[in-house]
Amino acid sequence: MTTVAVIGGGVIGLAIAWRCLERGHEVSVHDPDPGGGATGVAAGMLAATGEARFGEEPLHRLLLAAARRWPEFAAALASASKKDLSYRSDGTVLVAGTDDDLRAVTRLVDFHRRCGLPVQPLTAAEVREREPLLSPRVRGGAFLPDDGQVDPRRVARALMSLVPVSDTPPEDAELTVIAAGHASAGLVPGLPVRPVKGQILRLRGMGLTRVIRGHVANRSVYIVPRADGEVVVGATEEERGTDTTVTAGGVLDLLRPAVALVPGLAEYELVEATAGLRPGTPDNAPLIGVVRPGVVVATGHYRDGVLLAPVTADAIVELLDTGELPELVKPFHPNRFTDVHR
Amino acid sequence: MTTVAVIGGGVIGLAIAWRCLERGHEVSVHDPDPGGGATGVAAGMLAATGEARFGEEPLHRLLLAAARRWPEFAAALASASKKDLSYRSDGTVLVAGTDDDLRAVTRLVDFHRRCGLPVQPLTAAEVREREPLLSPRVRGGAFLPDDGQVDPRRVARALMSLVPVSDTPPEDAELTVIAAGHASAGLVPGLPVRPVKGQILRLRGMGLTRVIRGHVANRSVYIVPRADGEVVVGATEEERGTDTTVTAGGVLDLLRPAVALVPGLAEYELVEATAGLRPGTPDNAPLIGVVRPGVVVATGHYRDGVLLAPVTADAIVELLDTGELPELVKPFHPNRFTDVHR
């Protein structure tokens, strides 16, 4: 039994805390606003290719492993918390708005195949059979049967019901886990994590059935309908320091491609427009590793924090069990950017 | 001295109440949510041509008279209430986004000339000299030096500070004034007034100096910057009954032309998106007249309630003084649509 203090109550920190508690460790989470950072503005797409990033091999392995762990994680969390997470694993529709976008979608389809992931290319007519609310103007797409989604706010609430969260700084613990998103940079000098602003919309309306990953005029947009009628549209990526202003341009950049792909969204209620700060890193891959004795970092998950929460939590559990992080996670030590420490 | 009960605490009802009080009458206003109807979602443009409607001669006379009365009304209200109304009369810039729109602007310029209103046609370069934040793509426009603006919420608050407002129904009064906007139809059977939904945005940011009445791809949009940094963008016109949902399509229909005309608005904060119900009529002109002994109607001001508030208030004062409405207002009796009563 180890005493563990987790700094940061987003999905990463909360998932770590819950998995450690399950293993019998003594755990506390410290966050003045748990669930209020990047978690609160995440859409919760669970895409094994991350959000369609073409990165390096170790990151692909991590994302694939993360996607595979979600079904068990979702079932265990729903059972332990007795809460509905709005978890679904019934696939995602990739859609191209223009011929240019169709080329981008084709590259993604090839990428899925190379990763050994199931993918089904679709003509324009077939893509509209999958999701009849799509515009007659869409040029084609693909079906990704293994992709899923979950409501990140529900995940955070479920985890918060299971772990002790405090708004005070931690007492001394045997292991301190720094999972404070972009703010982790203020806790570990030199940690290469920065805020990347994301604006996101919540609409409300019925009829849309499928998660849509759209490409329109070289812009990407995702549209995530949930069973309760909420439809999340996201997300911008902006380098604006810690500014979290919702701007006219951010909202326009989301609504324009979303309504172009799904004209019926125009009739949906605009319930909320929010902005949050994702933890970005120089190579868009997470920062997971022991930075000094008794202190481990778990941040930098950028756009994939929800997807990567279970695999990150399992890595910290393994660190407690064995004294080492799993091989899967070793390539993501924060010192990978500084040649001298390699 | 007459006892006057005004049903409806929007700018029309409140202005009537204030002017009647000033003349020594005993006045009460009845509204469970004063200032909360069409007033709360009005931009407060004071355009002598109404919102650029090409209507009939009596309506033009009324709008012109209304515009002429605003300077005195604004000065008297600011003085009596000791409140700043954000009143300005430094002109409006008409702007065309495309060649098609330029033809629409040219028609408006001709219309202003025929009305004897000052108007100054501007080339694309000249229009950008007037308002440097306009896009280099604008095709031309005009300057309307007599148009002004006022903050309708401030006007309502100033008036509310001067008149007694109650949320209970009125007691018996010698004169009952029905100024309840579209809801007046529920108080006077057969009154031809209906709700017309308008969605409006409030942005925040500095730099824009001029009120802009824009035409972009056959859509009109107005952009009203106030001294305190608030920028109102309006407004949609939708026939949706009493629905006041803010929709994705409504917000998109405002942001798209506004950002096309003034690209810098993309950086402005989106503070609020709201929807309200204007009182529309079959001919888009107001309904002002005695409908039965002791009951006068003053509604149906559609998009011009703020502009028409002073002239409407003066008309009711004249009714109390002389027993008759002024000639200017007589063409707007609600019975004008029913031949049998003419």
From TrEMBL, chains A, B:
<dbReference type="Pfam" id="PF01266">
    <property type="entry name" value="DAO"/>
</dbReference>
<feature type="domain" description="FAD dependent oxidoreductase">
    <location>
        <begin position="4"/>
        <end position="161"/>
    </location>
</feature>
<dbReference type="InterPro" id="IPR006076">
    <property type="entry name" value="FAD-dep_OxRdtase"/>
</dbReference>
<dbReference type="GO" id="GO:0005737">
    <property type="term" value="C:cytoplasm"/>
</dbReference>
<protein>
    <submittedName>
        <fullName>Glycine oxidase ThiO</fullName>
    </submittedName>
</protein>
<feature type="domain" description="FAD dependent oxidoreductase">
    <location>
        <begin position="173"/>
        <end position="319"/>
    </location>
</feature>
<dbReference type="GO" id="GO:0016491">
    <property type="term" value="F:oxidoreductase activity"/>
</dbReference>
<dbReference type="InterPro" id="IPR036188">
    <property type="entry name" value="FAD/NAD-bd_sf"/>
</dbReference>
<keyword id="KW-0560">Oxidoreductase</keyword>
